[in-house]
Amino acid sequence: MRVAAGAGFPKRLTLLGAATLVAAGLALASVVLTSSPRATASSFEHLYPDLQTVVPVHLNLVNAQQREYLRFSNGIANTGKGPWALRAEHDLLSPTQTTTAIQEIRTTNDYYECGTQPKQVTACYEIAAEEAVSLFEYHPTHKHWHTADVALFEVRQGSPTGPVVGENSIKVGFCLVEVYTLEGNARTKERTFWDCHGSHQGIGSGWVDQYHHATDGQEVDLTGVPDADDYYLVSTSDPGNAFLETDDGNNTAWVSFSLTSSSNGNRKVTVTGSSDCDTPALCGVGAPNR
To answer: How far apart are CA 124 and CA 111, in angstroms?
Structure first.
């Protein structure tokens, strides 16, 4: 259910009910929000984020424990007017391993909520609307919190919509933070979201969250996949359309690649093309390799 505040944007809508996990599917129950007067969240679409996947970069093959993995860096950019801001229903310092992720539709990209900023700071945001959209889940390997089902990684053959190769269709969760900007220098002091342990995660307008190819989980298993020149690594942000954003149709990017073997049996991955991009940055130009 989407509920929004009326004129004046009260600082925070009051949460009366909480999402519960259903045993069959961890489904979110309805969240009841109060505001007066009530309006629909669609009234604030001009404040929504817009999620776009950066073309995957830094592809490389790794052999480990008799398995062969394709590793890569994946980026999610926010090209919308407003930040992609997610608040945990429960404090992430609590012992629970899952909690509801509530998306806040904010009036600006500023760091402080109005009424909470220091006296010397005038810029602030108000919450125009909010909705329970996903889960925060504790990731024991990364030792921080992830937002569930943020991306989908697939390896397909023949075309970006061809058959999935093996079992390489994997939904993943991310800790959403601002790593670099689409344009210009990414100065740390300008970041709004930078912590995986606090009560909020997100990506501000014009920022990108990148998971580097060396990070655990940034891989698909190519063990036993035969040599060919028509493979596609396809990455889709918000594959279930769970999050509020301006355009659900521009969330996928892909890179095509070939797999070849040398005379001694060593395999090589070679990038052969990519999906079209609105800007060089969305094609991965300038993405950090760190």
So the answer is: 7
- Pick the closest to residue 100 from 131, 127, 132, 130 (CA basis): 132
> Residue 154: in which H helix or E strand, if any?
strand 144-157
- Per the model's pLDDT, the better-predicted residue between 172 and 189 turns out to be 172
Which of 91, 86, 98 shows the shortest CA–CA distance to 193? 86
Percent of the chain at pLDDT > 70 equals: 81
| Structure token digits, residue 129 | 């609307």
With 0.70 as the threshold, say if the pTM is over it.
yes
Q: In degrees rounded to 5, what are phi and psi of residue 193?
A: -115, 115
Residue 93 is encoded by which pair of tokens? Answer: 């310092």
The full set of domain ranges for the chain reads 3-283
Do residues 237 and 150 lie in contact, with contact meaning Cβ atoms separated by under 8 Å?
yes
Compare 96 and 181 and report the one with higher pLDDT.
181
H runs (alpha helix) in the chain: none
Show the tokens assigned to 64.
């480990």
Mean pLDDT, residues 94-106 taken together:
84
Amino acid symbol at 86: L
Q: Which of 121-125, 158-162, 180-184, 274-278 has the lowest mean pLDDT?
A: 180-184
Residues 6+ apart with CB under 8 A from 168: 153, 154, 155, 220, 221, 222
Cα(192)–Cα(127) distance, integer angstroms:
15
Q: Are 132 and 61 in contact (CB under 8 A)?
A: no
